[in-house]
Specification:
The complex is a heterodimer. Chain A is an alpha/beta fold. Helix content of chain A is about 50%, strand content about 10%. In chain A, the strands form 2 sheets. A 4-stranded parallel beta sheet of chain A has the order 2-1-3-4. In chain A, strands 6-5-7-8 form a 4-stranded parallel beta sheet, with helices on both faces. Chain B folds into 4 domains: about 5-85, Uridine Diphospho-n-acetylenolpyruvylglucosamine Reductase, domain 2 (2-Layer Sandwich), CATH 3.30.43; about 90-210, Uridine Diphospho-n-acetylenolpyruvylglucosamine Reductase, domain 3, CATH 3.30.465.10; about 215-315, Alpha-Beta Plaits, CATH 3.30.70; about 330-405, 2-Layer Sandwich (Alpha-Beta Plaits), CATH 3.30.70. Classes of the chains: A alpha/beta, B alpha+beta.
Chain lengths: ~350, ~475
C-alpha cells in the first residue's frame, strides 16, 4: 500500500507543520467535546495525518479519527498559527478513499449518492415539489438560477417551493435536471466530478451569471469546488439585497439565529440573515454566535457516518439557545434537520419560512 | 488476563491501545516524544486509585496528562506504560465562596473556572497564555502562572488542599479548607510543581480572590529592550506593583499588528503595564506609570477602554504560536522558552539572548513577564531544514546556561519535564538534587510515576530535542 506517496502529492507539508500542537483547537472541537479522545480533536487529527504520511497503518481508528470531523472550521478560526485543519482532514480522506480505504458508512454513502444523484438514494422525481403548471413555465434562459439542493428537494419541499416562489419574482429559474452539488462526496473524500459537470453544463446552457442557494453545504461547494464561472449567492444574501422590494411586515415574535458553519465561518455571511430577521421580528443571539458559533454536528459526513455523535453535538448546540425565544432560524436544511432531530423544544425553521410567514401575515 | 482487560475492568471502554490513539498521546506542545502502551481516561478518584494500584503491582509506568498543552514534555510517557488522561475529571465540585475557595477536579479548564466565578465577583488569578485550554491539574503539577503573577503570585499561592493518589494507589489529602495552617510539613506545596512524579492529583481546593473593580493598561514603547527593562525597574522602585507587566519586543509587535491591524500598539519594544483596583486608584497608578516612563520611553499611551484592553491581552496570549503568520515557512519551536532571572538581570539576559540569536543566526522574539523576571524566548525555524534544527538545540542550550549563570532558572512556569531535565543538576547542584531524589524514592519507591522527568533518575534521561 503506497499511502505515503499519494499523500505527498496533495497535502503540502508546510500546511501540516504550521500546527505547533499548542492545543487551542482542543477546547473548541465539537466532536472532541463529546468523544474525549485526543485522536478525535483537531490537533490529534493533524498528528494522525502526519503519521499516515510516515507509514501509520490506516486502520479503523484512523478512519474514525479523520471522519468524526464535521469540517465546521472553528479550529481554523481559532488557530493562532493560521493552520487550516478542515482542508487537511478533507485531503487526507480523499487520499485514503482514492486507494479504496474508507469506512463502510463512507462506501455506502458514496454508492448511494453516485447511483441516485442525491444524498438520500431517492428514486423519486427531484422536482416533485414543483407543481405541473409551474414546471412547464420554467424559463430556459435566465440571469439567476435557484440551486435547490438534495435536502430541500426531498425532505423540505415546502421550503424549496417557498424559496422559488420568492426568487422567481426576480426572474430566477431552476436547473431542469439538477443533481447533488457534490458536497457529501467531496467532504467525505470522494470524487464528485460527474455531478459538478452535469450541474455546470446546465448552468451554462441557461446562461445564468448567478446561482442562488438556500443550503450552506451547496453554497460552500458551488463557491469553492466548482470552476469560478458564475457568482454564488446564498438565499439570505439575495433576500437582504432585495429587502426593500420584499416589503416585509413585522411579526410579534422573537427568534434566535443559528449560523451554519459553511455559511458563517466558511463564507463570512453573518449579517445578511440577521438583517432580514431584524426586519421581521426581534432577534436574540445564541450564546455562541457568528465566528464563534458551535456546529450543529451534521456536516462533514458525520450525520451519515456517526449519527449518535452528530445528534449529541446538536443537543449541545441547543444549550446555546436563549430562553424564551419563539423559534430557531437557520439558513441550512442540514443544520435545521439535525437540530430538529436532536429534540429541540423550540421550533427550528428556515429563514425562508420566517419570510413567508411575514408575507402571509398581511 | 492481559493488562488491557484489567484496565477495562476498572474503566470500561475508556481505555485504548489503538496505534493512532497512542500516537496522539505521544507528545504535548513540546518536541519531547514517548509513546504510551495504553491510554486510559478515568472519571473518578476511585478509578485512578485502582489504576495506579494495578500499575504498581505490575511495575508499569503511569503518566498523568491534562490538556497536553505542556511545553517541556511533562505529560509525555517516556517509558511507555499508561497515560492517564485526566481531562475527563472536569467538574467544579463546589463553590465555597464564604470560605473564599472552590473545590475542583483536575480536568477543569482554567477559563471555565473563571467563567463560573465571574458572576460571583471572584477569580482564580494564575492565567497562563493557554488559559482557554489548559487544565487546573496541569497548572498545579507545573506550578504554572501567567501574566498577573507579578502581583498575585503563582498557582502555588492558591492551592489550599489536594487529594492525591499515591504511587501505591492510596488516597491522601494534603490540606484543608483553612486559609492558613501551621501543622507539619507542607505536603500541598510538595505536590505543586512535582509534575506527576510523586502522585496523581484528583481534586484540589483553590483559594479565589475578589475581582478588581477596575483595570487600566498603560502601553509604553522604547527604542531598545534595555531601556524597557530600566523603565520596569524604575516603576517598581517608585512603589507601584502592576497587576501585569509584560514585554513584547519589536518583532512581537510586528507579528501582532500583522495579525490584527486594528491593535493599538506603538512600534518598538513595548511594555504593557496593567494596574487593577478601583476606578480612582487605577487612574492614579496609571498616571504615575506614565510619568515614571515618559523620560525613558519613545511613546506612552493608555488603552482607551475595557474592549481595547482585552483585545491587546488576547493577542498577547496567543503570540507564541502566531509567528508563523509573519512568515509561513517559519514555525515556533518551544525550546529555551521559559527562562527567568532576578528582575535586575533582565537587561543582561535580553542582551545575551540577542547575542545568542546572532551567533546562531536564528531569529528570536522576546516576550513575557518582565515584572517577575520571566522571559519567553521564541525561536523560530524552517522545520524542513535539518541544519536549523541543529542550531536550534544549541541556541536553546546557550539560553538555558545564560539564565543559570545570571542566577536564574531554566523554567519559570512551564516546568522541567524531560526537555529541561539535564539542567536540574546544573541549576541546583548535586546536594539539592539528592534531596529531591530522596523524596521521590520515599513516595514512589518503584519509580512508576512519570519516570524520566525532572532529572530525578540516576541514569541520564533520554534526549528529547529531536524533531
Amino acid at each position: 500500500m503506497n499511502v505515503r506517496a499519494k499523500f505527498e502529492m496533495r497535502i503540502d507539508t508546510r500546511a501540516i507543520e504550521l500546527c505547533v500542537r499548542c492545543g487551542t483547537c482542543r477546547s473548541v472541537c465539537p466532536a472532541f467535546e463529546v468523544l474525549g479522545w485526543e485522536s478525535r480533536n483537531t490537533r490529534g487529527r493533524i498528528m494522525v495525518v502526519k503519521a499516515l504520511r510516515e507509514g501509520l497503518e490506516p486502520d479503523s481508528d484512523v478512519l474514525d479519527s479523520l471522519n468524526t470531523c464535521t469540517t465546521c472550521g472553528i479550529c481554523a478560526a481559532k488557530c493562532p498559527a493560521g493552520a487550516n485543519p478542515p482542508m487537511i482532514v478533507q485531503e487526507a480522506r480523499r487520499g485514503l478513499v482514492s486507494q479504496g480505504i474508507m469506512t463502510e458508512a463512507q462506501a455506502g454513502f458514496r454508492e448511494k449518492v453516485n447511483e441516485s444523484g442525491n444524498t438520500f438514494g431517492e428514486r423519486e422525481d427531484r422536482l416533485g415539489w414543483l407543481s405541473d403548471p409551474n414546471r412547464e413555465g420554467l424559463k430556459e434562459k435566465a440571469e439567476y438560477v435557484y440551486f435547490v439542493g438534495c435536502l430541500d428537494s426531498y425532505r423540505y419541499p415546502e421550503v424549496a417551493k417557498k424559496t422559488f416562489d420568492i426568487l422567481r419574482r426576480f426572474g430566477a429559474t431552476i436547473l431542469p435536471d439538477e443533481v447533488c452539488c457534490g458536497s457529501p462526496l467531496i467532504r467525505t473524500g470522494s470524487d464528485a466530478g460527474k455531478f459538478v459537470d452535469k450541474n455546470l453544463d446546465q448552468i451554462k446552457r441557461i446562461g445564468a451569471k448567478t446561482v442562488i442557494t438556500g443550503c450552506a453545504g451547496c453554497y460552500s461547494t458551488l463557491k469553492k469546488d466548482y470552476p469560478p464561472e458564475f457568482e454564488v449567492v446564498s438565499v439570505p444574501e439575495f433576500l437582504a439585497e432585495h429587502l426593500s422590494e420584499l416589503d416585509l411586515p413585522r411579526l410579534e415574535m422573537t427568534v434566535t439565529y443559528h449560523d451554519p458553519c459553511h455559511l458563517g465561518r466558511g463564507g463570512g455571511i453573518f449579517d445578511p440573515p440577521r438583517k432580514i430577521i431584524k426586519a421581521i421580528c426581534d432577534l436574540e443571539e445564541m450564546k455562541a454566535n457568528r465566528e464563534n458559533a458551535r456546529c450543529c454536528g451534521g456536516g462533514g459526513g458525520v450525520r451519515a457516518g456517526y449519527p449518535d455523535l452528530s445528534l449529541e453535538i446538536a443537543r449541545r448546540r441547543l444549550l446555546d439557545v436563549p430562553p424564551g425565544v419563539d423559534a430557531i432560524v437557520s439558513c441550512c436544511p442540514l443544520c435545521i434537520r439535525n437540530l430538529r432531530d436532536a429534540g429541540s423544544d423550540v421550533e427550528v425553521i428556515d429563514l425562508v419560512d420566517l419570510v413567508e410567514r411575514a408575507i402571509k401575515s398581511v | 488476563m492481559d493488562l488491557i482487560d484489567k484496565l477495562r475492568e476498572i474503566v470500561g471502554e475508556r481505555v485504548s491501545a489503538a496505534p493512532s490513539e497512542r500516537l496522539c498521546y505521544s507528545s504535548d506542545a513540546s518536541m519531547v516524544k514517548g509513546t504510551p502502551d495504553y491510554v486510559v481516561r478515568p472519571i473518578s478518584t476511585e478509578e485512578v486509585s485502582k489504576l495506579v494500584a494495578l500499575a504498581a503491582d505490575l511495575g508499569v509506568a503511569v503518566t498523568a496528562r491534562g490538556a497536553g498543552t505542556g511545553l517541556a514534555g511533562g505529560a509525555v510517557p517516556l517509558r511507555g506504560g499508561i497515560v492517564l488522561d485526566m481531562s475527563g475529571m472536569n467538574r467544579i465540585l463546589e463553590m465555597d465562596l464564604a470560605n473564599l475557595q472552590v473545590i475542583v477536579e483536575p480536568g477543569v479548564i482554567q477559563a471555565r473556572l473563571n467563567d463560573g466565578l465571574k458572576p460571583h465577583g471572584f477569580f482564580f488569578p494564575p492565567d497562563p497564555g493557554s488559559s482557554n485550554f489548559c487544565t487546573i491539574g496541569g497548572l498545579i503539577a507545573n506550578n504554572g502562572s501567567g501574566m498577573r503573577c507579578v502581583k498575585y503570585g503563582t498557582t502555588r499561592n492558591y492551592v489550599l488542599d489536594l487529594e492525591v493518589v499515591l504511587a501505591d494507589g492510596k488516597v491522601v489529602r494534603t490540606g484543608s479548607r483553612m486559609l492558613k495552617s501551621s501543622a507539619g510539613y507542607d505536603l500541598t506545596r510538595l505536590f505543586i510543581g512535582s509534575e506527576g512524579t510523586l502522585g496523581i492529583i484528583t481534586k484540589a481546593g483553590l483559594r479565589v480572590v475578589p475581582l478588581p473593580k477596575a483595570r487600566r493598561l498603560v502601553i509604553a514603547s522604547f527604542d531598545d529592550a534595555e531601556a524597557a527593562g530600566r523603565a520596569v525597574a524604575k516603576t517598581f522602585a517608585s512603589g507601584i506593583v502592576p497587576s501585569a507587566c509584560e514585554i513584547l519586543d519589536r518583532t512581537n509587535v510586528q507579528v501582532l499588528r500583522r495579525c490584527d491591524p486594528k491593535l493599538v500598539l506603538p512600534e518598538g519594544d513595548v511594555i504593557l503595564f496593567e494596574v487593577d483596583g478601583t476606578e480612582s486608584s487605577t487612574k492614579e497608578l496609571a498616571q504615575e506609570i506614565v510619568s515614571v516612563c515618559s523620560p525613558i520611553a519613545a511613546q506612552v499611551v493608555s488603552a482607551s477602554g475595557e474592549k481595547e484592553m482585552e483585545e491587546i491581552w488576547e493577542a498577547r496570549r496567543l503570540v507564541g504560536a502566531a509567528v508563523s503568520r509573519l512568515d509561513p515557512t517559519k514555525s515556533r519551536i518551544y525550546v529555551g522558552e521559559d527562562v527567568g532571572v532576578p528582575i535586575k538581570e533582565i537587561p543582561a539576559l535580553i542582551r545575551e539572548i540577542g547575542e545568542i540569536s546572532e551567533r546562531f543566526d536564528l531569529p528570536a522574539m522576546k516576550y513575557g513577564h518582565i515584572g517577575d523576571g520571566n522571559l519567553h524566548v521564541a525561536l523560530f525555524i524552517d522545520v524542513l531544514n535539518e541544519e536549523e534544527w541543529a542550531k536550534l538545540a544549541e541556541a536553546a542550550d546557550a539560553i538555558h546556561r545564560a539564565a543559570i549563570r545570571l542566577g536564574g532558572t531554566v523554567s519559570s512556569e512551564h516546568g522541567i519535564g524531560a526537555a529541561r531535565a539535564e539542567y536540574m543538576k546544573i541549576q541546583w547542584g548535586e546536594g539539592t538534587l539528592s534531596v529531591m531524589r530522596a523524596i521521590k524514592r520515599a513516595l514512589d519507591p518503584k519509580g512508576i510515576l512519570n519516570p524520566g522527568k525532572l532529572g530525578l533518575d540516576d541514569e541520564s534521561p533520554p534526549p528529547g530535542g529531536e524533531g
